[in-house]
Amino acid sequence: MQFLLFHIESVLTTYKGNPPLSVFLKAYFRQHPKLGSRDRKAISEAVYIYYRCASAWDNGAPVLPVIKTGMQLCGSDNPFLDRVLQGVAAAPVPIVEAGFPVPLSAGMSAGGWLASLRRQPRLFIRVRKQVDKVMVLLQQSDIDCHKEATGWPAGQERADDCLSLKNGAPVDRLLEEEDYVVQDWASQASIQGALDLMRQAGFVPQQVWDVCSGAGGKSILLKDKLPAFRLLVSDIRESILHNLKMRFRKYHLSGLEMKVIDNTATQQVAAALEGRLFDTIICDVPCSGSGTWARTPEQFHFFEMEQLQKFAALQYPIAANALSCLAPGGFFVYITCSVFVAENEAVVQRLMEGRPGLQLLHSGIIDGISRGADCMFVAVFRNQLP
Ligand SMILES: C[S@@+](CC[C@H](N)C(=O)[O-])C[C@H]1O[C@@H](n2cnc3c(N)ncnc32)[C@H](O)[C@@H]1O
């Protein structure tokens, strides 16, 4: 047991918040090949618990002794982990009592959101075909799963192809890889709701630009849901566009054009697009990720308020440069995985200023907390200029 505690402490003292904890742990375990899979699991769980709980107790100071005692009492079977989490969930959160220092988007309560960061979220998949057959297959293997309705606004969601499962469910061993996409409920809902709005307006996207495409979560969903359309994806990182290309290949999707673009650079955008206009633009900007901190509790632990200014300085220019390429009558979808006003409503407000032709059709948080999912923010605009 002592060696597990040694490794837990060693990770906690050497990890400084970057790269993501999952990447750091993989590298750490590569350096310690004698650790078996059970050891790695116990160390990872304890470290994640530390970061989940640390916010509840005065920068985590008392959390480590609780983990140590738990491990000494229970071994690495981890029944103690549940008890630690239950204890933490019930404990008062000092930061809530003091009031969370950053204003949260409309509809978010600081207490509910902070409490949700202490629970591990669920796993969500989007099933690309025969969802009922897939559910039966999973249930036959004793994997508890249920359909989760996606879309917005509340009351207009549809239970379709989104499945909710316990985190860690071994879907990769049971399903063919091209039959499903791992994608959080809120991410699915962000696009599903926007598509519903377009459908209600009798609008069918033909020329789509996915700005900040990352590895293509939103684009893959669009390709699965819509009839043929031309798609441009762009991101500042060439390596992530390579991942996107591999994913498109895996899912047998075609009709893709890719460009490396720094969307904060007005000249670069103009040179890359040569006056092209798009009738649909998805703008899923870089952000604090605060709506996903339940999955990455280390980001909350190491978060510093100044980082918000840095993101805000990226979000507006990225969105404004993209908006300049929106065709008349076109739809512009601004998305973040943040719950902070500064990255959400404040950017929407700035985008509206000086653009009288831009109509805001919808703006709000997609709250995944009760479902064990992430929170996102989405605003949908339409260019009403003739
Ligand atoms: C929230 S992620 C996008 C996630 C992606 N849309 C998806 O659904 O999987 C934001 C992306 O913005 C990219 N990015 C950051 N700064 C950028 C910039 N200045 N111009 C273009 N993309 C940028 C990042 O590389 C990252 O992939």
Q: Could you explain how this protein is built, in words?
A:
- The structure is a single chain.
- The protein is of the alpha/beta class.
- It folds into 3 domains: 2-91, no CATH class; 123-182, Alpha-Beta Plaits, CATH 3.30.70; 185-383, Rossmann fold (3-Layer(aba) Sandwich).
- Helices cover 44% and strands 19% of the residues.
- It has 16 helices and 11 strands.
- It has helices at residues 2-14, 21-31, 37-54, 63-74, 79-90, 94-98, 110-116, 131-140, 171-174, 185-200, 217-225, 238-250, 266-273, 297-301, 306-323, 345-352; strands spanning 123-127, 145-150, 158-165, 180-182, 207-211, 230-235, 256-260, 278-284, 326-336, 358-366, 376-383.
- Strands 7-6-5-8-9-11-10 form a 7-stranded mixed beta sheet, with helices on both faces.
- Helix 1 packs across helix 3.
- It is globular, with a radius of gyration of 22 Å.
- It binds S-adenosylmethionine.
- The site of S-adenosylmethionine (SAM) has 20 residues, from helix 11 and helix 15.
